[in-house]
Specification:
4 helices, two-stranded antiparallel sheet, single chain, 78 residues
Length: 78
């Protein structure tokens, strides 16, 4: 559903791996994971999607900058 609505589907594990590639995803606490899932769901319900640095949708000029953010929150098309 998210892929159809927003053009991509991002899971919480994707966000964690993108933001902290060396992190052990298993160490993320249940409470933190639940809070993050609520945040992602709230964003989805408002038409906001997370675009990772390695997604095709990530803006090329932004990715070529000195310190590009690993994740962009977007509404609509970029």
């Amino acid at each position: 559903e998210l892929r159809e609505h927003a053009g991509c589907a991002v899971t919480l594990d994707d966000v964690i791996r993108s933001s902290a590639p060396n992190a052990d995803v298993g160490l993320v606490t249940t409470e933190a994971r639940a809070a993050a899932e609520r945040l992602l769901e709230r964003a989805r319900s408002r038409g906001v999607a997370a675009v990772r640095w390695n997604d095709a949708e990530y803006p090329p000029l932004r990715g070529a900058s000195v310190d590009p953010p690993p994740l962009l929150w977007v509404r609509g098309r970029i």
